[in-house]
Write a structure and sequence with these properties.
Distance between the termini: 10 Å
Largest sheet: 3 strands, antiparallel
Amino acid sequence: MERALINPSRYLIVVVSVSAYASSLLMPAFLCRSNSMLGFQVLLMGWIAVIGLQPAWFANILYFIMTYRLVRGTNTRNLLLPGAASFLAIAGLAGGPGCGPDIANISLGLSAGGYLWIGAILVVSAYYAAKRPAPAC
């Protein structure tokens, strides 16, 4: 059986998106009055924000599902998955309830890593929503 080659545009989208996502983990992503949090810290602790009604962290799960399906070539033209991921990622622009137990340490919003994270998710979401997989031979 001959192995199918990955579509060059799909390959480019995955490489750009994963590179942006990985870069966002090493950059300041969330600003607080007294400090900032790196992207990997937000990723590891972000699920706690769900308690504070900040659902943006769940965009990571949808991002990984879409990226995996793009790499495997099993994506279908589906607007629900990329739409939900985009909505959740953009919800991160709303800011958080705070930065720790100190009430005076308010959230100042996203930093460069946070915007790069949103961009990575939007790139994969747009491509995922627009493209159908190639038919199997």
